[in-house]
Amino acid sequence: MFQSLQALPPDPILGLTATFKTDANPNKIDLGMGVYKDGVGNTPIMKAVKQAEKIILQSQDSKTYVGPNGAADYNETIAKLILGQDLFQSLGKRRVTVQTPGGCGGLRLAAEFIGKANAEATVWVSDPTWANHKPLIGSAGLKFKSYPYYDHESHSVKFIDMLKILQQVPQGDLVLLHGCCHNPSGADLSPEQWEAVRDVALQQGFNVFIDLAYQGMGTGLEEDVHGVRLLAESLPELIIVSSCSKNFGLYRERTGAVTLVCDSDESCATASTVLTAAARANYSMPPDHGAAIVQLIMNTPELRSSWEEELKEIRDRINRLRSQFVQKLKDAEIARDFGFIENEKGMFSFLGVDTGQIKTLIENYSIYLVNSSRINVASINDNNIDYLVNSLAEVLAE
What we know:
This protein has helices spanning 12-22, 47-59, 72-83, 85-91, 102-117, 133-138, 159-166, 191-204, 226-234, 265-282, 289-298, 301-331, 340-343, 355-365, 385-397; strands at 29-30, 95-101, 122-127, 143-148, 150-151, 156-157, 174-178, 207-212, 238-243, 255-261, 348-350, 367-368, 374-376. It has 15 helices and 13 strands. A hairpin with a 4-residue loop joins strand 5 and strand 6. The termini are far apart. The strands form 4 sheets. A 7-stranded mixed sheet has the order 2-10-9-8-7-3-4, sandwiched between helices. It has a two-stranded parallel ribbon with strand order 1-12. The model has no long low-confidence stretch (mean pLDDT 96). By secondary structure, it is of the alpha/beta class.
């Protein structure tokens, strides 16, 4: 049976990282991998996480299952983090949150739930969107269409074009939005644009599906969920998938959640049973360690303060890197305006170089980035920024 299989191409990002690891050039730079890196190129464990782990190690007395929905306290903690205390309370039993194996597990679980609610639904995704959205959601059998989002010429959101398409999305379909720090572009919706999306969603009757992977990595923990909270308080139904990979640094612990907002307490109770059954059928029980860490940090004032402080340091460093990178590109007198990079949020941005230039950067300079020219700004540091800028100057001058 196995002989009938055909080999598949490697994942474009993971394959790039594998090649990077074998490169002997001491100046090599990996701009492709989507994890936060500090000033020396490491992905550190946050101080609050380390402290929480010590407490858990000393106090935990069982490794029994936590159940398909995960840890109840973690679920409530995540809901409060996303929605804020006031909205959390006002939604009451119209809201349910279920722990998932990371944001990826949350996206797949949400897709299974959507398939049960409306198997004919089409999910509208931004052009471009995160490369794994379609594989994760599409593997549950859902169909896709795209709406315009990023203008590569102006390096901004094509909001007029986006709105025109959203005004054609029928009732029963879903529009997938990035809660903040759009991956791969870094270009986010403004508060006014979020309001316009809310208005057209109410007008058309489509559902909104939010991927919230970077809360706290853009402008702030509260500011980054402005759009999420606006829609949660305004729309009758909403799906939010959230991740703790980036803002808690819990990448390998696979810690995420799905939050549903329903039009009534009764429909939410019903939806909860469908979500639980989908979790049970897919992975049975979620892992506990990451969720226990998040729960302890958020419910311990000293640990929460430490976490928020370190998250702010990470956020400020990324924003500072954007400004520093743009300034050095200006100083290098490259005949191109890269000022848009400074205005974007989160870890990612399009560099705006073509595939030929990307090939040259990889083969001649050991600077690795994917063919879309998306870069992880957090991979830049004081040790490699000058080499990166000088290499870009040479390639763009050819």
